[in-house]
Amino acid sequence: MADLNIKSAHSNSYGAIVIGSGMSGGYAAKDLCEKGVKTLVLERGRSVVHNRDYPTTNMMPWEFKHRGEMPEDIRRENPIASRCYAFKEDAAHFFVKDREHPYIQEKPFDWIRGYQTGGKSLMWARQVQRWSDLDFEGPARDGFAVDWPVRYKDLAPWYSKVEQFVGVAGFRDGIPHLPDGEFLPGIELTAAETHFKSVVEAKYKNRHVISGRCAHITGNREYYAKQGRTICQQRVMCQRGCPFGGYFSANSATLPWAARTGNLTLRNDSVVHSIIYDEKQQKATGVRVIDAHSKEMTEYYAPLIFVNASALNTNLILLNSTSPRFPDGLGNDSGLLGKYISFHNYRGRVTAEYDGLKDLTTFGRRPTSGYMPRFRNLHKQETDFLRGYAAGVHGVRPVEMNYDGVGEQLVTNLMNPSYGPWQVSSHMMGECIPREHDQVTLDRDKIDEWGMPTLRVNVGYDDNDEKMIRDYQQQLAEMFDAAGFINIQPQDDHRNPGLDIHEMGGVRMGHDPRTSLLNKHNQLHACKNVYVTDGACMTSTGTQNPSLTYMVFAARAVDHALSQTG
Amino acid sequence: MDRRSLLKQMLLAAGGLAVLPVSEFTQARVLAAYDELQITPAQQLLLKKLVDTLIPPTSINGEILRGAAELDVHDFVLVMANDCLASADQKKFSAGLQLFDDFPAANGKPRFSELDRADSERVLGAIWGHSNPQDEAVQALQYFLTTTKWYTIQGYLNSEYVMTELMPYQLVPGPVFDGDRKIDPEATVNIHG
């Protein structure tokens, strides 16, 4: 028996295990494999192979039975997933359906998930703005959460490495609190956005309107050819999976790159139950995996474990990894595991029209839009709420259709569209303040079909968010007015937390093991061979779309881990 | 109570518009593709004529554009009503469809399915402009007609024919983005460009 066990341990042993094949797990796997580490990537969902498993990618609009709309019975059965803008006929197969993986909402929380190879990196919105010290120094300056144990200078070289591999289209805008990076040619603003930019930048100090930096290849073709990717074709149907690899996904970029080293083992349908902690060695030695179909449990072993299961699932796995040493979850000496969960406030919108620039229009499709970096409370506190918000700004010239009449009159109307006034819209991306009571816990009385406890989510807005929404609406309306826009309509869509798909925290980084879970290298303070580099590690939320920063933490942590093992 | 009996009750309660083709509704075979609406082949034909009335073959600048019926847009209308409408809206749609063919008969005219194009168009105008818009039957008719018109326009403008021959759509590469293109006032605007 003893011999058999040794054999079994040997055949299930790797140099590293990465839990999760999405944005940050894929990046960790790439760097580990590149450095010669035999790496096991565990993905709980099905296999989605680049270009083989994008069933809708080349479909014409008229080939969709409902022209993109989701059938009513599916919407009724999936109220949560249906609130996501990308849950449409061309990409719904990449989203978790509500009934498949229930969770408990103590307060309304839309948990949008993609359980497959590549995770949500297949369907993400591809905006990649860097953080700056405005963000990393935020908690210390404004007295919330705990101080980040890193600063921008620690991450800057890793941003550069990741951006180069990913491919980022952008302009060097020279804004200190939204640092420039390694950019491919940028994508221009529209005429209305350029007009807005000129008005805003003339009238306000420290307010900028730029083209949002996005993870699309717009140059350096030879470099990306080595990844099997090429220039973005501006189809802008990224959520279907891109046969050109024009946008970055784990499926098109990091995972194939890792596979080509010969060091990658990707195991799908592998639900991670928990991380195995060895009391004698005082470190993690592997993971317990439940086969999604047979429900059988298998153990896999490695001296190095990366947890990249997506923010809330990473919390779930660590909370479920109990042992005599860690009765409340792996690394949870502080009792803070699962606490200080936060997200981005996307509730505010402002729409308007512009009657100018009548001789101009837009043509074609672009994978980004205008972006205003945060401008509130930049250098000192100036409002009655903490922190601030970034804003998307989108100005297009829509075609106006005349749907009047029936018969030949209707046909004539339809065949003679005209240009309406420019439509301008903005949405906010507000920094939420992590609070201790915003947390996830495990409900061990409700066990799912894989034997996992159900996640209980208790996360909500607070007064700071409400004030920020009102300020955003006022400020954008004021700037729209200054730009001569008309019919300005501030809105609050009252969306649930989570629909931003930027949930973060629960396993936060910090200096002190008593008030944080991870150190400055993303290692669990109390179990140093376990690294967490997905959204769960975030101490605060910033205003930037976070995926780029997760990948940066992953790359930096792999480098650290390998420097430790020599 | 099942949906059919509910619908029958609702239609009877609606009153006003005398002849209900209940026998057809209950006895004729229904098309499997439209299970929720319980559409009969005769209703499918009726809808084809309505779609043809809404978007007929039309001569524009010496070219005959194909009409919606020829492009099977009536089937698209039924797919959308069957799959994408909520149950309450489906009931209104079905109720309107049930009443639609016989609407002209209230004024002693032939059924819609027997009218020529000019009279067909007049019937649509009469339903939308009905003097008693509070009437439940009129509301069902108007809902059915307006919903059909929208789905007809959607199905037509997003048909392969329109998107390749009239207003071409390019899947790949996407047209090179231009954020400030000068408008040519002479050029026809392409909604899929």
Give an overview of the whole structure.
The complex is a heterodimer of chains A (566) and B (193). Chain A is an alpha+beta fold and 566 residues long. Chain A has 2 domains: 13-47 and 100-168 and 249-343 and 435-458 and 504-566, FAD/NAD(P)-binding domain (3-Layer(bba) Sandwich), CATH 3.50.50.60; 170-212 and 344-431 and 461-496. Chain A has 14 helices and 24 strands. Chain A has helices at residues 2-11, 23-34, 72-77, 79-82, 133-136, 138-142, 152-166, 191-203, 221-225, 250-260, 311-320, 408-414, 463-482, 547-565; strands at 16-19, 39-42, 104-105, 210-211, 264-267, 270-278, 283-291, 297-301, 305-307, 339-342, 344-345, 348-354, 360-363, 370-372, 389-396, 399-400, 418-419, 422-431, 439-447, 453-458, 486-492, 504-506, 523-524, 527-532. In chain A, the strands form 6 sheets. In chain A, strands 4, 11, 12, 14, 15, 18 and 21 form a 7-stranded antiparallel sheet that branches. Chain A has a 6-stranded mixed sheet with strand order 5-2-1-9-24-23, with helices on one face. In chain A, strand 7 and strand 8 (297-301) form a beta hairpin. The radius of gyration of chain A is 24 Å and the shape is globular. Chain B is globular. Chain B is mostly helical. Chain B has 8 helices and 3 strands, in the order αααββαααααβ. Chain B has helices at 3-14, 22-27, 41-54, 73-84, 87-100, 117-128, 136-157, 160-166; strands spanning 58-60, 63-65, 178-182. Chain B has one domain (3-166). Chain B has a two-stranded antiparallel ribbon. The N and C termini of chain B lie far apart (50 Å). The longest helix of chain B is centred in the C-terminal third of the chain and has 22 residues, at 136-157. The model of chain B is unreliable at 1-27 (pLDDT under 50). In chain B, helix 1 packs across helix 5 (87-100) and helix 5 crosses helix 7. At the A-B interface, helix 3, helix 8, strand 13, helix 12 and strand 17 of A face strand 1, helix 4, helix 6, helix 7 and helix 8 of B. Strand 13 (360-363) of chain A pairs antiparallel with strand 3 of chain B, so a sheet runs across the interface.
